[in-house]
Amino acid sequence: MTPQYKPETTDSTSVKNEPAQSAKLWAGRFSKETNAAVNAYNSSIAFDARMYKQDIRGSSAHARMLAAQGIISLEDAKLIVDGLNSILQDIENGKLSFDPLAEDIHMFIEAELTARIGDAGKRLHTGRSRNDQVALDLRMYLLDTVSIIRSGMVELYSVLLDICRENLETIMPGYTHLQRAQPITMAHHLMAYVEMLARDIDRLDDCSRRMNTMPLGSGALAGTTYDLDRHAVAADLGFSGITMNSLDGVSDRDYAIELTSMLAIFMMHLSRLSEEIILWSSQEFAFVDLDDAYSTGSSIMPQKKNPDIAELTRGKTGRVYGSLITLLTVMKGIPLAYNKDMQEDKEAIFDAVDTVLMCLPAFTGMLSTMKIKKDRCRQAAAGGFTNATDLADYLVKKGLPFRSAHEVSGRMVRYCVEKSCSLDDLSLEEMLTFSGLIEQDIFEAISLDTCVRQRRIVGAPAPETVAAAIEAAAARFAI
User: pTM of the full predicted structure?
Assistant: First the structure.
């Protein structure tokens, strides 16, 4: 099943006004309260609250490490971890709501912890800055989200393979310039998208590998004088390693940009397939029929059946592109290390992943229920002279140079256009007027089935070639 994802957002029904929560933990330096407009402008809890699980996991690991290193007592560490677990339980049970006056999710949880367990809660932030804390939370959140995205992509990949298996013999026209070009099969056509999707999954895996390094211990920018065991925290949280430069650890957002870039490429592939489905489902093509459950109608035209899932996917692709440009623009002029501009990273990357997670189940369902009209596909392949190249190849095999064969085939096509017929409709006598090399076997040579079956080289549309490609593709991700 496609993983169902519900963005953990904050709205007016899930927040409460608790002045005790909104006290600034950094206020000692300041003599005035933060201006209300500045506070609203500066706050990020409305969108970073979704990282509460990762913040609590990271803080718990940090507390355990501090105790193991003798930096805080085991008793305080237990109070901290137990307190954090109680906060997690209360958030998930709906007993604790996010404070809209809190600056961010990190400050909210720390303030709530201190309110529950007292001074022990104030020890949690020892050896840590919000700069490396947010860098940790964001990496963890994206790694968790990537696993959901990957599952959805693999399911889509599997659905495409199933459709290909069912359409190894479904002949259709292949196109260039949106003009009928040569006969192929529906399986061969959709296997092109399988290849694109395989690269997308590979890119996602590669991006995850680079993302999987733990930045906590970088401090604000220069590490810390405390004897932290960064490797222990990384192991506790399941990271494969740690970041190796404290400046880079807090100011790197390459992983978010790379993930959004990968998602943009993936959406571009979905958009291309969406465009084809939109065309194929039209009465002009009529290659496919979309299931009623994945179509919509018109408020005024009773006959309409609109491919809205494909159209929305095509439209939402631009939204993911926008997130990528936002991230690139935010980061392009920032000197080392952390700058407040980087708060703008979250809404962009969150929107990108939310968009993809919305697209995947709808798009996969649309494909899995789509019916392919095999007869109509073949009928379209029979028109448009898609076998003209095979006619030229036939003449080459009879000894004619390819350029001469190309010219003969072109003249025969022109003759058929004038007569409003196809190459197959010509008599042998008519064909001989163009070349004396043509024999009775021409009709078998230019039949649609022969045109497809003779293309047996690796990557070509012959059914046995595509069948082998399907099985190789299935093995790639153990489907």
Answer: 0.91
